[in-house]
Amino acid sequence: MAVTFSDLHTEQGVKSVEDHLTGKTYISGDQLSVDDVKVYAAVSEKPSDAFPNASKWYDCVASHLAKSFPGKAVGVSIGGSAAQPEAPATAAADEDDDDMDLFGDETEEEKKAAEEREAAKKDTKKPKESGKSSVLMEVKPWDDETDMKKLEACVRSVEMPGLLWGASKLVPVGYGIKKLTIMLTIVDDLVSPDNLIEDYLTCEPNNEYIQSVDIVAFNKI
């Protein structure tokens, strides 16, 4: 519901603001609004200590205005009767009521600081990614009768977090025997190549096809 004040250039008018602000910080709601600007513009000077609510409110609005308009003021005097300034101030506030918010928008510095704080929070929550390595392995069968397709299937059947199998090919060794060369990418903190060979590739049941595994190349990514 709209609140009406009149004769705010008089002591009686200021008293109506004083009474309205009992138990309140602002004219409307719990945040500074255009209503506060309207009333502030109509009050000719800071209310005396006889009006503690109005005086405290006046200082609060003045403080916010000073932040929004940081230029140095030298003071101005407006001629005419004391009651006249209220009308243009109210009209101007009405026109800009929907699209002007002197205090709701952050400055560029405040926005940047807020973004940096949010980014810092996300960085602390996000776990740091471990380094990765690219590994080339040679997998050797028992003999020329070993089914190399099943051998490769055994190798690729090993799955664990941080392990990604890549391209592979069969390379002739001699006497009809071929070996499997295969690329893999590992997350260093999650996968140990030595454990991968000893605990998975060359143990049962994979050792039915795999005789041995050698690391040919190891490169940090």
- Multimeric state: single chain
Spatial strand arrangement across the major sheet? 2-3-1-4
| Number of DSSP strand runs | 4
Poorly predicted runs are 80-93, 98-102
How large, in whole angstroms, is the Cα Rg? Answer: 39 Å
Structural class: alpha+beta
Could you characterize what this model shows?
- The chain is α+β, with helices and mostly antiparallel strands and 221 residues long.
- Among the domains are: 11-68, no CATH class; 132-220, Ribosomal protein S6/Translation elongation factor EF1B (Alpha-Beta Plaits, 2-Layer Sandwich).
- Helices cover 37% and strands 20% of the residues.
- It has seven helices and four strands, in the order αααααβαββαβ.
- The protein has helices at residues 11-20, 34-42, 52-68, 86-95, 108-125, 148-156, 193-201, and strands at 132-141, 163-174, 177-187, 210-220.
- A four-stranded antiparallel β-sheet has the order 2-3-1-4.
- Strand 2 (163-174) and strand 3 form a beta hairpin.
- Helix 1 crosses helix 3 (52-68).
- Residues 80-93 and 98-102 have low confidence and may be disordered.
- Residues 80-134 are annotated as: Disordered.
- Belongs to the EF-1-beta/EF-1-delta family.
- This is (rape) hypothetical protein.
Short characterization:
The protein has 221 residues and is an alpha+beta fold. The chain contains 7 helices and 4 strands.
Task: Give a quick set of tags describing it.
37% helix; four-stranded antiparallel sheet; Alpha-Beta Plaits; alpha+beta
